[in-house]
């Protein structure tokens, strides 16, 4: 049983200078957990970056972060913000001037690393402009870039990460900025989980429940990164901790989005697209379950409705699993059976099986999800 979501202060993200019809999105409060990612393109090449932003949005990404390392990136950011279909976050590290330029470009949020900008006067200049423009700030702490004194006295620990974040929280609060989101990312699962738990407790004690952005930084390649992220973020979300998340993979960022949604759907926190239950296959199977499953996945890409589909290799578990799905298909030798809510619709030859399955899926969407369209939609 998932515990109630922790109380958090909602923050609204919307590009300030956009020319598109992009809508804003809330992070925190009673709002759904938000899916994020980051572009891997050269931000200065704004056309290429916008292409990737649209690819991410089409996959279901709701907020996209872009790096801003120099004046060329800042110039590109201006075009990206104007045309992006989703809120854009500027990723700032060492140069506070890039933070100022990003705010002027109209980004929806800044991400600052308190371990990298250590000059109070420079931070103050950024925060004052952020307040003036209504720009939220994510305090992004990474284990690899702690303040030197904290690293020396506290080591690479969850406590050091929390202390680093709280230092910057205090600065922002003293300057009157409270549209804050916090992240505490380490490359390993346990350190990350303990850091977020500690931060949750710390914020509750001081009655400042800022929203939390979840992530395992530098999680790894596609397979290992997916495993680590699913474990770490899944644990925290199960405990009610987390208002937005990014799965950080050493892969095309578009690959991150299905993992995010998979985690949220598995925990019952969000619904988007098909939930496919597929058997692992065995000696009983008289049909290629893997190929059948891939074919169903291909169909799923055409719809946004949260239809539950069971793909089974034989009739042993097919009817039972189908009772817990909207539509089920159980393979046989040269044929297959289609089920609706566990009830047999009919048996069809293999060459007609997918067509019959699609027909039942469309009936389910028409009856149960009339607001969902038969096409991929921007989230």
Helix content: 40-55%
| Low-pLDDT regions | 375-379
> Oligomer, anyone?
single chain
The third-level CATH topology of the largest domain is TIM Barrel
CATH superfamily of the largest domain: Dihydropteroate synthase-like
Q: How large, in whole angstroms, is the Cα Rg?
A: 23 Å
The counted number of beta strands is 15
Which structural category do the helix and sheet elements fall into?
alpha/beta
CATH architecture term of the largest domain:
Alpha-Beta Barrel
How many domain regions?
Answer: 2
Question: Whole-number average pLDDT?
Answer: 89
Q: How is the largest sheet built, in terms of strand order?
A: 3-4-5-6-7-8-9-10
Shape category: elongated
> What is the distance, rounded to the nearest whole angstrom, between the alpha carbons of the first and last residues?
28 Å
- Major sheet: size, sense and barrel closure? 8 strands, parallel, barrel
| CATH C-level category of the largest domain | Alpha Beta
């Amino acid at each position: 049983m998932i515990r109630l979501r922790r109380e958090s202060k909602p923050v609204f993200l919307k590009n300030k200078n956009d020319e598109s019809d992009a809508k804003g999105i809330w992070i925190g409060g009673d709002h759904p957990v938000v899916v994020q990612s980051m572009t891997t393109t050269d931000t200065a090449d704004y056309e290429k970056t916008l292409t990737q932003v649209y690819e991410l949005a089409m996959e279901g990404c709701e907020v996209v972060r872009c790096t801003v390392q120099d004046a060329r990136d800042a110039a590109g950011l201006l075009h990206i913000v104007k045309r992006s279909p989703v809120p854009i976050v500027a990723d700032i590290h060492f140069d506070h001037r890039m933070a100022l330029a990003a705010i002027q470009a109209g980004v929806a949020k800044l991400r600052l690393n308190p371990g990298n900008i250590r000059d109070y006067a420079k931070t103050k200049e950024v925060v004052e402009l952020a307040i003036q423009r209504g720009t939220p700030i994510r305090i992004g702490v990474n284990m690899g870039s702690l303040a030197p004194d904290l690293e020396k006295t506290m080591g690479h620990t969850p406590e050091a990460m929390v202390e680093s974040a709280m230092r910057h929280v205090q600065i922002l609060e003293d300057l009157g900025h409270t549209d804050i989101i916090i992240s505490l990312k380490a490359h390993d699962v346990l350190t990350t989980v303990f850091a977020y738990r500690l931060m949750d407790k710390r914020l509750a004690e001081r009655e400042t429940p800022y929203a939390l952005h979840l992530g395992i930084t530098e999680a790894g390649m596609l397979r290992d990164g997916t495993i680590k992220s699913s474990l770490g973020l899944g644990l925290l979300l199960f405990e009610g901790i987390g208002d937005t998340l990014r799965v950080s993979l050493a892969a095309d960022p578009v690959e991150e989005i299905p993992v995010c949604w998979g985690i949220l759907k598995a925990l019952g926190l969000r619904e988007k697209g098909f939930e496919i239950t597929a058997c692992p296959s065995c000696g009983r199977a008289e049909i290629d379950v893997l190929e059948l499953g891939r074919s169903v996945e291909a169909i799923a890409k055409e719809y946004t409705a949260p239809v539950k589909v069971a793909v089974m290799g034989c009739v042993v578990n097919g009817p039972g699993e189908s009772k817990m799905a909207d539509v089920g298909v159980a393979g046989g030798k040269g044929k297959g059976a289609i089920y609706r809510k566990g009830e047999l619709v009919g048996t069809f030859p293999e060459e007609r099986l997918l067509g019959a399955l699609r027909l039942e899926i469309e009936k389910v969407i028409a009856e149960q999800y009339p607001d969902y369209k038969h096409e991929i939609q921007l989230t």
